[in-house]
Each structure stands twice: as structure tokens, then as C-alpha cells.
Amino acid sequence: MEDIYSMRRFQFEYSNEKLFVRELEKLRAWERRQMAQGMLFHIYCETVDRDRIKTVCDYLEKYFPDADYIGCTTSGNIVSGDKGQSDICVSCTMFEYPDTQYKVFQLPLEENSHEVGQRLKRYIDENPWVKSVELLTTINGISMTKFCESFTDCRDDVCIFGGGAYSPDLNANNGFVFSKGHEMTTQGVVLLMTGGDDFHMVTMHITGWKPLGREFTVTKAQDSRLYELDGQPAFDVYYKYLHINNDENFFENSLEFPIFYKHNGIDILRAPASSNEDGSLNLTSAVDENVSAKLAYGDPEVIIDSVKAESIAVADFQPDVIDVFSCAA
Q: What's the pLDDT score for residue 6?
């Protein structure tokens, strides 16, 4: 008996044009043979070479003119469960049910992030076919809190997930996102909405990070800028306990030690994106004053145990596709 799939995933790397064209020709032959109902590409780039990325996009548009693509820069790619060998990875999703559909948005993400979120929320409300929202976003100096809060009262059957667009140099703010028909931008968000009667998805919240040491109180914060912990400059905690300096390498050195606290009953991690001369920290999202916080550490054994525990639910769901995305950690 032939297996029935709602979608299939093909993944390959771009190392040179000749090999890439060979992969695309094989993919096009498979598509025609199986009569896929729709196609979508993800392009993950461990490079900021825009000309190299544009070459990949041009080939996709040539061989699959009706297919969309979305993409972003990363600090590492995962291919077939291992670290990618090339700096560009391409994933192709083929939808096999005729009622499965998707919609791609690319929008600027600056100080009006709440307005952008509200616009997208209205689209979800007006289109009951939407079952999932995948977002790839830059985080260059923008707090994602107001944007994310726009989706707090989404329908229960809508899964929302995604990641940040970093670059190979974690200390550089040159990561960008892009999609078909739009420019590569260092301040924007790309969203993929997918759904249909035969489309089903689940998301899982796995951290595995554990708090370290003593507890602190956030005594001064404004939006995504954390000024003080226990009345002292927030940076002092990183210097005193971890001997991390306040320099251009702060983000890379502090990445394994985000700030850990509970928000709405969920363990939240706030990674400092950079440090300032006054000892304040720029976080990726806002943090409230008068809340308790600790430093956290990504213990590999705890993380793996958390993933193993959730793998039981994965086996029960029996997915056609599992998405794994590496942004920075």
C-alpha cells in the first residue's frame, strides 16, 4: 500500500552552479512525475554575499517560476541532521493535497512593529484556512515584544514559530531576510502562512536551559534595554560571575548565558544582543521591572533530555516534515 503524504521535503546545498543545476533538474523531474500541488523553497545562508544568494534565487525562478521562496542569513545550517558543509542550504517543500495553500508576506520591521503585527493578525482572523505562521525576522536593535503581543489572542488552532536572522559573525548587525519579489533587508520580517483542511501542525516549547546562581531583581528597564539588576549596572553581573568584558565580542561571549525568568507561566530567555558603555544591556525583547531573574546556562545534557522527552509526542504525531532551524545558539 502506498504511503499517503500531505507534503514532502527535499534538502540540498549550493556549492557551485553546475551541481546546483543538477539538483534542480532532478527535483523538477520528480515534481512533474508526482504532479505536486504546490512548491515552496527555504534558503538559509551562512553568508552575507548578496550576489551569491541572488544567483541561487535566479536559478529557482528559472526552473520553478510558479514557486515562492523565503530566506535569511544564519550563523550555521543544519542539513540531514548534521552541520551543513556549504554556506547556502536550500529546502524544497512539495504540497500534495490540492486544498493546501500558503501566503508569503515580507514587511518592514522598525518602530511600528505593533502595527505590522496587527495587520498580520487581521489577515489570520479573516482567513480561517491559516493553520501556521512561520516567521524569519531581523532583530537589529528592534524589540520583538510588541510585535509578538499582537498574536496573543490568535485562534487556538494556529501555530506560530520561527527564528532570528543572524549572520556568520554573531557580533555584526548585518543579518537580513528576503523573499521572492522583495529586496534583501536588514530590518524586516518574512512570514509564511500555511493551512488547509488536510494540513496539520504542532509546535513544541523546549528549552532545557537551567538557571544559575543567585536571583536578581530587575530594578531598571525600559523596553528592550536592561539598565540595572539589584540597583547595579546589568553588565556587572556578566563581568562579576562570568568574567565577560564589555567590548565588541560581548554578544558572542554571553550567548550561552541568557537572562532567565518566568513570564505568563513560561520560562523566558532574554539574550543580550550587545552591551553599552553605561553598563546597560540591549536585549532582543522587552523585560519588565520588579521581576526576578537569573543567569541561565544551556547544559547540553539537560537540553538533550528535554528533546528526548518531547520526541514521544513527535512519534505520536507522525509528521511528514520536521523543521529544524539554527539562528544563533
A: 74
Tell whether the torsion through CA atoms of 221, 226, 229 and 232 is positive or negative: negative
Separation between Cα atoms, residue 137 and residue 186, nearest integer Å: 9
| Rounded-to-integer distance, Cα 239 and Cα 192, Å | 40
Give the 3-state secondary structure of residue 72: strand
- Pairing between β-strand 88-95 and β-strand 38-45 as defined by DSSP bridges: antiparallel
Spell out the residues 6+ positions from residue 185 whose beta carbon is closer than 8 angstroms to its own. Answer: 106, 108, 138, 176, 177, 178
Sequence-separated (6 or more) residues with CB below 8 Å from residue 65? none
List Cα–Cα distances, 32 to 29, 82, 173, 307, in angstroms. 5, 30, 41, 37
**Location of C-alpha cell 505590522:** 116
CA distance 219 to 51: 46
User: Which phi and psi angles does 234 have, rounded to 5°?
Assistant: -60, -35
SS3 279: coil
Q: Which DSSP letter does residue 185 get?
A: B
Residue 40's H or E segment, with its range, is strand 38-45
Question: Do residues 140 and 186 make contact, with C-beta atoms less than 8 angstroms apart?
Answer: yes
Please check whether residue 73 is in contact with residue 47, taking contact to mean a CB–CB distance below 8 angstroms.
yes
Closest by Cα among 318, 106, 89 to 202? 318
pLDDT higher than 70, residue 5: no
Residue 193 corresponds to which amino acid?
M
* E strand intervals along 210-323: 210-222, 225-229, 232-233, 259-263, 266-270, 272-275, 281-283, 292-297
pLDDT at res. 109: 82
Q: What is the pLDDT of residues 49-96, one digit of tens each?
A: 999 999 999 999 999 999 999 999 998 888 888 888 899 999 999 988
d(CA 199, CA 6): 7
Angle (CA) 101 105 110, round 5°? 155
- For residues 102 and 69, the answer to whether their CB atoms sit within 8 Å is no
- The DSSP secondary-structure symbol of 14 reads E
Chain-wide mean pLDDT for the chain? 88
Rounded Cα–Cα distance for residues 70 and 190 (Å):
7
Mean pLDDT of 254-280: 85
